Write the structure tokens for this entry.
Amino acid sequence: MKTRAARGLAVAAGLALMAVLLPAGALGARPPRPGQPAPEVTGGPWINSEPLSLARLRGRVVLLDFWTYG
């Protein structure tokens, strides 16, 4: 049960962080909701890897590092 609670807390924290950091409308018309499939990661360039799909990452812990130049 602790694992399920920790996973739920991590998902909630991630969604809250995305809501704060991403500009309005960046994810489309509706924000992601817990329990719904995540949108595919698009954009690029990919560094140190070929482009990955969510299907290939399923079941793994993933850290996405976003930054901008300027």
